[in-house]
Design goal:
With 201 residues, the protein is of the alpha/beta class. Helices cover 38% and strands 17% of the residues. The chain has eight helices and eight strands, in the order E-E-H-E-H-E-E-H-E-E-H-H-H-E-H-H. A five-stranded mixed beta sheet has the order 1-2-3-4-6, sandwiched between helices. Helix 1 packs parallel to helix 2 and helix 2 packs across helix 5. The longest helix is centred in the N-terminal third of the chain and has 15 residues. It is globular. The relative contact order is 0.14.
């Protein structure tokens, strides 16, 4: 299956992320391909997101770090064709322009470490001796990554208010997070500008 289509003139790059459960290796491979796609310096990078899974927190942070290093002239478009969960929400929010299916939903869980003592969770934050914990209460590093994802989502949406609740497209529009123009129209416009600026052979 072909997941990435790059126009020969490098103006528009369409990049698909298939949202699947238990697909960590897939997402890591896609992150590396995303990095390679950005090295071609496309004018527009359109990330299409589809499926019923979610991007793991650590991989979402990896994708974010890659996207933050994109060439200054590259515009990022995120297009959610499915509902979004967890780390997938963060990746979608990173778009300069964001599109989402009208009946899709956004969901992210509560802070999994909200009841933990930060001194006991994060090394180097204090000298207090850790309290006894049995083998079933160890902190999962993935939880710490998810907390970071929530912190970044909070730059766009109030996490305390929306965590654990289903967020509709109408709410996203109220926060100014959704573009009203359809993604196909946007990309068609990008192609038309390419043709207008093309030098005759």
């Amino acid at each position: 299956r072909q997941f990435m289509k790059t126009q020969t003139n490098n103006r528009v790059c369409e990049f698909r992320l298939k949202l699947s459960s238990y697909a960590n290796l897939y997402f890591i491979k896609r992150a590396l391909k995303l990095e390679a796609a950005l090295k071609k310096k496309p004018k527009v990078l359109c990330i299409e997101m589809i499926g019923d899974g979610e991007i793991p927190a650590d991989t979402a942070l990896l994708i974010r770090s890659i996207l933050l290093q994109r060439p200054p002239g590259t515009e990022l478009v995120t297009h959610a064709r499915s509902s979004l969960q967890g780390g997938s929400v963060l990746v979608w929010l990173l778009g300069d322009r964001r599109f989402i299916r009208d009946d899709a939903r956004v969901f992210f869980k509560h802070n999994p470490l909200a009841d933990e003592d930060p001194v006991e969770v994060y090394a180097g934050l204090g000298a207090a001796a850790p309290k006894y914990k049995d083998s079933y209460s160890c902190v999962d590093p993935e939880d710490a990554d998810y907390v970071r994802v929530l912190e970044l989502i909070n730059e766009f949406l109030p996490v305390r208010e929306f965590a654990g609740r289903v967020v509709t497209v109408e709410v996203l529009r109220e926060f100014g997070l959704v573009n009203s123009q359809h993604v196909d129209s946007f990309l068609a416009n990008a192609f038309s500008k390419r043709n207008e600026n093309a030098v005759p052979a």
